[in-house]
Amino acid sequence: MIGSFGIPMLKGLEGFNRNWLRNDIPAGLSIAAVGLPSAIAYPAIAGLPPETGIYASIVAPIAYAIFGPSRLLVVGPDAATMTVLAAAMATIIAVEPAAAGVDRIAIASALALGVGVFCLAARFLRLGVVANFLSRPILVGFFAGVSLSILVGQINRFTGVKIESDGLFAPILEIVRKSASIHWLSLIFGLSMFVLLWVVRAARLKVPGPVLVVVVSVILSAVFDFQGRGIAVVGDIPHGLPRFSLPALYEMPLDKIVLGSAAVFLVSFGAGIVAARSFGTRAGQEVDANQELIGLGAANFAPGLFGSFPISVSDSRTAINMSAGGVSQAAGLVSAATLIAALVFLHSALRILPLPALAAILAMAAIGLIDVGELKKVWRISRMEFVFALITMWGAISFGVLNGVIVAIAATLVYLLRKTMYPRDSLLGRIEGREGFFDLARFPQARPQEGVAICLIQGNILFFNADYVRTRLLTIGTQLAQGTRSLLLDASAISHIDSTGAAALDVVAETLAKQNVTFAIADLNEESRELLDRAGVITALGPGNIFSDKDEAMAALKPARDAIQDKAEETNGPVQGHERREL
């Protein structure tokens, strides 16, 4: 169903059949079971109370079910988004003293609204391609750095010691200095729950590890009075439903809110769309990034209006939905209803949940962000991309997560520029008895054409690589075989030329003309031809030296080659062992 302005409505429930509930209800219950522990644990990363995670896990799936295009994707809190959110909030509070007195929940809600605005703006500008801006290797490296930041952030929950340092090594050194203050019972219990999670994962038990940890922790906390023994617990959780509220934006530094929202949006949407496409491939469904922007925008607006924080596509919840056989967004609605029931009826049990258990869940989630297999794959495929993955990982660790986003963007730009600054070139020739032109370096049987050199440039000619292209063409011009009087540029792989590129080609034509070498171009697209015409390059080359394809160019340049051959024969006599070949 399509609403106003082309916005999809209830597309994830399109064609709903009551028989689907046989699959969607169990799937929704499974999603809630897996999502509840993370919903309580993840807010701690940003210093938010646990109920905000439950609120986000309720309202976001409802909003996505209404506006999201996918039947299977499940949205909710995720560790990477929470880490970027924490960094953005810390920057806002640290830089603006006036914001220090503002409720942290209000700041998180404002950032969620900002992410929603960025999603919708990107959709209406059709900028879904921004999802491809952070490549898979860059994201893998960034998440590895984020995971280490999350792990370090759990030191205080494991040990009960307040850690004031930031970064990777400073908190470790601080806990070593404060080792006398470690609450050993908290540490032993937290590490025990972490081991339990490893055992569940290794044994591949059907019961999700976080669910088992929550159940065991609550039971032990009730039986042995963990709070009375000094182990920190979650504490009071509001047992009512989330309430509609607008954050007081007028009390916040809007410029910092905008920048923080942009950082969260970039990472959240970039990682979310990668996950969406991964699950879409498994389910045989196409993922439209521009349509997903609407669903994710709505799913971020909802938490922003109900006292929560930004969300993204949840890998774990979507995987559970698929494995449980969910067929529509009804599974997400069932999950939301289940969490509402948990909030109302399990309030007392959640209150005594030990914080070291949440630290264990977060630590395991952080380790899950380190995709060692993907890093090995990147290393095997491209050493350069592996280096950029390490750069982004180092940026997230050394400069903080928020600055790590900037490092990731910068690394992406450097990588893209490097790939385009030095376009490949090759000289072409013909193979006897075969149509077309072939790379002389790749095909030993290919032979250059007499009297003319054909150069293929595989890339655009723009301001940042124009000098390199000019130098390459002039170098080729100085190395032409004896008797070659034409250099033909094969522009079939050039999609765009700018004014700087046009000036570079003009210099090539002028320099070659002084060497009595004709510079010609073939297979030039219409846009680039018009630009070269406006720049006066075509006039300098001569309209007769611009050809629609290489065959036309060779036919036109043939008389010049024959004249060269005839002149050589008149001077020196027939060349022994040489036969003139027709095109």
From TrEMBL:
**Where does it reside?**
Membrane
Q: What is its main location?
A: membrane
Q: Which Pfam families does this entry report, sorted A to Z?
A: STAS (PF01740), Sulfate_transp (PF00916)
What membrane topology term does the record carry?
Answer: Multi-pass membrane protein
Q: Which InterPro entries does the record cross-reference, listed alphabetically? A: SLC26A/SulP_dom, SLC26A/SulP_fam, STAS_dom, STAS_dom_sf
Which terms in the GO cellular component ontology are assigned? membrane
Renumbered to this chain, the Basic and acidic residues biased-composition regions fall at 560-570
* PROSITE patterns registered for this protein in UniProt: STAS
Which UniProt key words apply to this protein?
Membrane, Transmembrane, Transmembrane helix
Q: Which superkingdom does the taxonomy of this entry point to? A: Bacteria
**Where do the record's region annotations for Disordered lie?**
560-583
What region holds the STAS domain?
442-557
In the record, biological process GO terms are: transmembrane transport
- Segments spanning the bilayer are 27-48, 54-74, 81-99, 105-125, 137-155, 181-200, 207-224, 257-276, 326-346, 352-372, 384-417
User: What's the name of the protein?
Assistant: Sulfate transporter
